[in-house]
UniProtKB/TrEMBL annotation:
Record-linked PANTHER family: CYTOCHROME P450, P450, PUTATIVE (EUROFUNG)-RELATED
Pfam families: p450
UniProt keyword annotation of Iron present: yes
Keyword line: Heme, Iron, Membrane, Metal-binding, Monooxygenase, Oxidoreductase, Transmembrane, Transmembrane helix
Organismal lineage: Eukaryota, Fungi, Dikarya, Ascomycota, Pezizomycotina
First and last residue of the signal peptide: none
UniProt-recorded name of the protein: Benzoate 4-monooxygenase cytochrome P450
Co-factor(s): heme
The keyword Chloroplast is assigned to this record: no
């Protein structure tokens, strides 16, 4: 059959007067035409409206993310033009209806879209939250005892003539916390004499000693399995003889660290921009008994239960999701929608940032209003029920309680101890507040430069 096919192909080529390269080119064009026509008219998502290039190729998203850098703004424009359901890929529709998104993504039978999450890798899928949080939380305490973080801020301020690079300090803090949480010991970045000497071109990846991590990535012995560290928990859950790779561990550290760093930067920025919130937080902290911890009030376990502090963190995380991040899911059954039925297997996604700024859920959605989360009224209860900052359904972020703990402790440690202001807020805004960018590309990261002044004299510490 192969010989006969070659004879027929040769006969057709000679009859049409075509060379082999020309024939291959024509066949390639024919294949592309078939793929385009199939995606346009015969794909499961073909009945939904959207731009032509989004229907036929995933390169549409690549273009707007990497070349135009306007993916989020483009999504808003698409929904304005096409309605609440827009086709943004050959097999993906994007939804802007908050009620549908909340109900749909709470389902436990949904699978993650492999085309999207396959780009992230397997590290996050293998992470499991430990049953016992007490030992993990105990590892955080040394970072907020007053010496490492507060002392470093003072030393950096004195050494730099009053200006402090808060981005580097928060970077060191979050790296120490993530490494300590996962491995049970800290790399000690907060203790560095000169943080500027730490490699910061790619931040977390640049500072992690991969060779040290790699030396641990072997199948653990029974004695090692008795270790209660998260790292050993991860290793003991790897299937069979497969080793947890250096890349998977480093990826988990990088993503966790950058998320914490971004959220802390947003939170501190909003507090600096809203002095009345700082005053309200300090007033709430002053209600605690200082006889045990003195001015190191962040050490008090009751800090994590303060309602206004919790509202500050919730409002900041609501406003800080990355502009590009969405959550595509696939159903094994057709999904009914207001305007029709979405076929099974089609990826259905929403963007966190878009829903967290929806005017039907949040009044004055672009404003920093922590008060909206306070009290037992209907508005506050509805907001808490519909909060999707850490994901929805069974796929919520495993580290959300850990992240909230870090945000609260760090904010209290800084703002109860220091008065903080931006060095040059006008310059920061003109540059686009680059230090608030999550996962910045090389060369586009910025530093938050602040001035700090101690609120208490040394004898009062």
């Amino acid at each position: 059959m192969t010989k006969q096919a070659d004879i027929y192909a040769g006969y057709i080529t000679q009859s049409l007067g075509l060379s082999n390269p020309t024939m291959l080119l024509l066949l390639l064009h024919l294949v592309l035409l078939v793929v385009v026509l199939r995606r346009l008219y015969f794909a499961p998502a073909s009945n939904f409206p959207g731009p032509f290039w989004a229907k036929v190729s995933m390169l549409y998203e690549v273009y707007h993310v990497f070349f135009r850098d306007d993916w989020y703004d483009n999504l808003i424009s698409l929904h304005e033009n096409y309605g609440p359901v827009v086709r943004i890929g050959p097999n993906e529709v994007h939804i802007s209806d908050p009620e549908f998104c909340h109900n749909f993504h709470r389902r436990s039978d949904l699978r993650k879209c492999p085309e999207y999450y396959g780009l992230i890798g397997t590290a996050l899928g293998g992470l499991a939250e430990p049953q016992d949080h007490l030992k993990r939380k105990a590892l955080l305490q040394p970072f907020f005892t007053g010496k490492p973080l507060a002392q470093l801020i003072s030393e950096e301020s004195s050494r730099s003539g009053g200006d402090t690079n808060m981005t580097l300090i928060l970077w060191a803090l979050t790296n120490d916390i993530m490494m300590s949480y996962i491995f049970g010991e800290s790399p000690g970045y907060l203790a560095e004499l000169d943080l500027a000497d730490l490699p910061n071109a790619t931040r977390a990846y640049g500072a992690i000693d991969f060779s040290t991590i790699a030396s641990h990535t072997t199948k653990p012995s029974q004695a090692e399995k008795d270790d209660d560290s998260v790292f050993m928990c991860l290793l003991s859950q790897v299937d069979g003889d497969r080793k947890l790779t250096t890349h998977e561990i480093a990826q988990a550290i990088f993503i966790g660290n950058e998320s914490l760093l971004s959220n802390l930067s947003f939170l501190l920025y909003y507090m600096i921009e809203n002095p009345h919130c700082v005053q309200a937080l300090r007033a709430e902290l002053d209600t605690l008994d200082t006889r045990t911890y003195g001015h190191q009030i962040w050490r008090d376990p009751k800090v994590s239960q303060l309602p206004y502090l919790d509202a500050l963190c919730r409002e900041s995380t609501r406003l800080s999701p990355p502009r590009w991040h969405r959550q595509p899911r696939q159903s094994t059954e057709p999904v009914p929608f207001k305007t029709g039925v979405i076929p099974k297997g089609v990826s259905i996604s929403f963007t966190l940032r878009m829903l967290e700024r929806d005017e039907t859920l949040f009044r004055n959605p672009e404003a920093f209003l922590p008060e909206r989360w306070l009290g037992g009224g209907q508005e506050a209860q509805t907001l808490r029920q519909n909060s999707i900052t850490f994901g929805t359904g069974t796929r919520t972020c495993l580290g959300q309680s850990f992240a909230r703990q870090v945000l609260k402790k760090t904010l209290v440690c800084i703002l109860y101890e220091f008065d903080v202001s931006l060095v040059d807020p006008d310059k920061d805004k003109n540059e686009g507040l680059r230090y608030l960018c999550t996962y910045p590309s090389k060369g586009k990261a910025g530093d938050m430069k602040v001035r700090v002044a101690r609120r208490f004299i040394a004898s009062e510490q």
